[in-house]
Amino acid sequence: MNLQRYVVTGLALVLASFGLCATPQQQGLAFVSIRDGHAHIYLRQGSSEQALTSGSSVNTQPAWSADGSELAFSSVRDGQSAIYLMQADGSQLRRLTPSPLWQTAPAWSPDGTAIAYLARDNSKTGVELHLVQLATGETKVLVADGLEKGPDAPVWSADGKQLVFLGANADGKADVWLVQRDGSGLKNISEQTSKRNKAHPAISPDGRYVAYVADMRGHLALFRTDLQTGESVNLTADKPAAYETPRWSADGRQLLFASSRDDPGLTRMDIFVMNADGSAVTNLSQHPHEDYNPHWSADGKQVLFTSLRTGTAQIYRYDMAKQRAERLSVNQSHDMDQVPRPANGQHAASATKGDLSYEK
């Protein structure tokens, strides 16, 4: 991955730490832009773009409610990071909880009744996984083991009964963990695949599999772990390279991801799709500049991704039927962390943050 890509992705991490046949244009797209000098949440609807946040605050990690009516996001205001909520038009801005903890990485439950997020108490070690019931404001601590977590947002299963998240193990390496909605059943599901770091977990729509990236020392690999049998399969064993952000199609038959597998130097990323068993790998973007962070549109007909092909991070759309990409955002600054607005009843996961670098 090139140096400019690292700068843009690093910027995102720094900012985060402080109808039935509707098209993606109609559905809308939330994203982060620093075009006015501050990180703000924007909404793209059709060809128009609207800033939903303003001022000197730092706003990142937008996450849609399942019905697409609201957004949760991380915001640093007056030196404090907290989770905020607002309507899709930017109205009714309010803070999720009055907690003094440093809050990041919100994730809506599929039924819209709760939000999971990461919380740090500076008087303690580690990061906790919290859950807030929106109707009552009650906060439940799901995981508090004194170990680091994130930076990726936790990911819900489609039935809302469990979550997966990135968390450190006893050796300080990031693993993929599974926990039930009530905080029970905490389990490390990735420890057998590699003793090194993991990243970007995603649960299949049927709740059976978790896809994620693992550091294999010298390269990265995309794994799929069966939650029923515990079996883990390296889906990219035939092509050692860099891999990022696997995301399941709505029917669970395909995985979308970014990879350097077609780059002779194994550094520049393209956008790929493959069958859930690792077969039929197809390079969608095939561009000499860096493409990364792909998301399926709500109807599955298009892929939204970030690209450095213009010199700054900009958002592009790839049409699966027409097999071509077009630029959506047009400015000289950086637009990133795009999250397509979901169709009614379809859960939208928070944008995934950061790179996983392998150990040599």
Automatic annotation (TrEMBL):
Keywords: Signal. It comes from the Bacteria. Residues 332-360 are annotated as: Disordered. Residues 1-22 form the signal peptide. SUPFAM superfamilies: DPP6 N-terminal domain-like. Pfam families: PD40 (PF07676). InterPro entries: 6-blade_b-propeller_TolB-like, WD40. Belongs to the TolB family. This is TolB protein. The lineage of its organism: Bacteria, Pseudomonadati, Pseudomonadota, Gammaproteobacteria, Chromatiales.
